[in-house]
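Comment thread on ticket #2218

A.B. wrote:
> Attaching the input chain for the structure job we discussed in standup.
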Amino acid sequence: MKRLLSRLLALVMVVAIGLVGCSNAPGGLSGNYRDDTLMVINTLKTAITLPADAPDKAAIQGDARKLINDFASRYRRDTALLKLSSFTTMRTALNSLAGHYSSYPNRPVPQKMIDRLNTEFSQVESFLKRGN
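C.D. wrote:
> Ran it. Output below, let me know if you need it in another format.
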């Protein structure tokens, strides 16, 4: 009887871990490409415009890096999105910001990059309005 209970407990634990570990929406993304893209843009705009002496800057940049990774892992294999101008422009912006955060984690984002990112984010928003 004891052996049966231990096997049943092991099975229940495997099922529970499997269900929790296989959630399909990373990082709080809804699965709606348009809404997720706009949410990521708003979050990243906040992260790149923080002053250098902001007390929670490191935490916000860490959240931004996680959000970039979650967005990329969620949508990079969706073949329907690969042809959209909004997706390719968004991917370019995310790659450049993620590269900066990886290479220079303690340095602020340069103004030239902030300007370029804001331009790309504006382009993505206009593409999304048009359905591209």
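A.B. wrote:
> Thanks. Noting for the ticket: The chain has a mean pLDDT of 85.
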